[in-house]
Fold these 4 entries.
Entry 1:
Amino acid sequence: MGGETGVIIAKGTAEVNFTVRLTWNRP
């Protein structure tokens, strides 16, 4: 697995975590 692939996966994971947090933090 190359460095670019790792960055893409990390970016995708961050976006998913961000979306999940927004959903869970709804009052």
Note: Residues 1-26 form one domain.
Entry 2:
Amino acid sequence: MKTIILRWQETSDHEVRVSVPDDFHLDSDYADDIANDVASLDDDGFQYCERDSFEFEDVGNIDSAAEVLYEETGVLIDDR
């Protein structure tokens, strides 16, 4: 076994149905705040996530605190 630093990017899609004022337009003053304001919603609207741009860096020696991703057999560890 060895320890690596694994990096990737995630893009997630969200969709919620919300009520807004009649004058709501994304090109208005609301546009400046909407990115933060959606965080206050009870429903985060999560639909799905895409992961890509994987890269890794070998750190050399084994880190006993690192989570195990694959056993020596190459089988994914899934303890859910």
Note: Residues 27 and 34 are 11 Å apart (CA to CA).
Entry 3:
Amino acid sequence: MERINKNDLDLSSMVSEGEEGYVYSDGEFAYKIFKTKNLKTLNNKEDKLDVLNEIDIDNVVKPLFGIYDKNKLCGYAMKYIDANNLFMMTKFNKMYNDNVYLDIFYIQIEYISKLLKEIHSSKYKLVVGDINSNNIIFDKEFLPYFIDVDSWQVGKLNNDGYAYFYAQYIFNRNMSFMKLNEDTDRLCLMLLSLIMPFENRCLDDISTDEFDEKCEDIEGLSALHDYFIMLKEENERMPEVPYVGDVLEKSLKIER
């Protein structure tokens, strides 16, 4: 992967801050600068970014250049997309009191699920890990993109992954933690699809009556009703769930 010098960049316009870093933009590129200064962590990031630079999957915002400060990796550059994070679908829905935005959300979840399948089929053995409403964005045409790829799992590299939805789910059930993999990715995307209309509340805090009421107004949510019940009731083992898009595609008869 090509290198650019941090001192040559215009980092005057910060567009967001996450747990791992700050994101700046000059309108053409976005620049993520890591918070950590730990050399081992940065070396692991460097190895992963070199691999992720090689992927060619539409709507995955991959690293284009490594950003270096005194010959040490400190971040990476990616294509800038004028977009909102996925959680804004809920905000728009609440603002305009119109379920059209959540209807769009479920149409796009079907597409996101297909993207996830493509990611999993990559020769680089990729696992997204922490799938949530902040690392999936949508542009002005409501097309979704995966971002924050530096937190993905890549093959047999030293991967220190974390998935909030998965961790929350198994913690509430005293299940044993397992290494993040394709199964945990599918679970996280299913959980995201179930809790989005409830402003990302924990699945276990949503009552069946409350869920049923929402299902009356939101077709996409209704299509996932059986998985809500199954995931609420499962208390002994890691549940097996399909790609959520496969469920929605059959129920919503989405044509692309």
Note: Residues 2-79 form a domain with the Phosphorylase Kinase; domain 1 fold (CATH 3.30.200.20).
Entry 4:
Amino acid sequence: MVRPPSLSEPNVEDNEAPLSHPLSPAQASPPPPSAAGSPLTNDSMFTPSALLAKALLCDDEDDNCSQGNVSAEERMERGKNKGRRSKQHPKLGGQSSLGGSPSAQPSLQTILRQVQPPSTRTGQFHRQQEVKMQRIRGVLLASLSINLVCGFMSATMTGYVTIVLAWGFFARPSPPPSTPSLLGAKDHETSTIYLSWIALFAVALFLIYIACFGIHSARKVSINHLLRYFWGAALGITPLVLVTTFAFDFYDISRSFIRHHWDGKAMEGLRLVFCSQGAEAGGKCAAPVLGGPNFSSIQDWCEHYHAGADDCEAIKHAALSQADKWIYFMLLSAGLLGVLNLVSLLVSMHLCVRLITPSVIMTYANDNISYLLLLPAGCCLGISLFLFSHTGFSPDHTWFAWSFLCAAALTLLNSVLTLVGGRLKKRRLLQACLVSNAVVVLLLTGLCATGYIIAGELSDQGSFYTSRRAQDIACKIQLRGCCCCHYSESVPDNRCPEWGTDEVISMIAADFRIASLAALLTILYDFGGLITGFLVMKNLDNYHCEYI
């Protein structure tokens, strides 16, 4: 084994022969301090290379390993003697050859880290960050894959339901015998079911597109593409929450809708699917509620139009029961898929933020939040107009519609203030926008809670929603199937016997639930604007002037 020259030996160049005669006394160097047993004081002994050489060649507890050639037997004997001394004198046993306590003696790992150049440590840090980003990217791809699968399943189900419902509408079959007497009535709900399921299908297609774009962005690791995916997902959250809530909360409305539209062309597709063989879709299975306006019961209607047959009600009941179960299964499946899609979408957005950092997100949020606030402003305005047309159907709730109108005006004002204040970087405008946005969030939160409370209390107001009052409301809002709305209001309890009091109340309560749900979705955008404004004001705290 090649031993490096001892620290006490003279330095001999490679191209020179070693000195054969001893040095003169004048030329002799003074003995090193370590020869006398004192600690080393030469600064060169503490350089990383010297410390590494010492750590590799010597035992950490060897006092004289720096003095030259020491045999293995001597090293073992010294180690034994030092062990005995350390047992007899614990306070003296831990002294180091470099002086000081053992805690001052650097370990081998510390020496190796000191010897490593900075570029090596920087490379290790970058490799650790790269491994971390690869893990986040893998989880993001898995979450986006869940989004894609849920989107395809939702699109398949909603597309199938839409085709079934639209089949009769576009096929334009011959109307059932009871339909001519109902042609004069306005049917505002005929297209509602199409719009509802078409909206579900459109949201599913949008989520599929967002998921595909997100997978492409995650594989490419493009900041611009990931930013576009993030804001697209932010826009997709609102309709996803809307349709998911609709799937869970509006089954009773859907059931009443199907029951009262069963004999119309809107349900032609369902009758073709669920009516038993031998019963034509426009025949026995299409019996109207209570036999329609010209008959007192389905039995009378069936005997009149089907040569004395008496099985129309049984055929209709069996088909309608199967259709109700089918719609319930579809709505429940759409709701569960919506929840799973929503959770995975939020996870994907969180991972996207970790990849492109919150500062980059906030930079684009400052530029786009003023335009995003136009969506809740339009939503509040639409709710207000919708409620103004329904204020006569319930007790005095006009203030509810006016509150949404005020929220729409304030949200529009926030959008303008955010746009102007963000471009001018004027502190007072941003502060006014922050305060106004906080007021809108509190107002919409109160309206959301109030709407659900009103919807829950409507059924308890028996003094207001009597049978007579419910039939008057059914005629006023022109619910489909009312036989005798042309009768005078003085005629008691027979203007719209087809609609029960509970069904009319559920229709009115649905208006307030829709308004509350829209308010909840609007809060998401306004709350995002509030957070953005708060962060902007926090970033401007270090400035001491009005204009930034």
Note: Residues 369-548 form one domain.
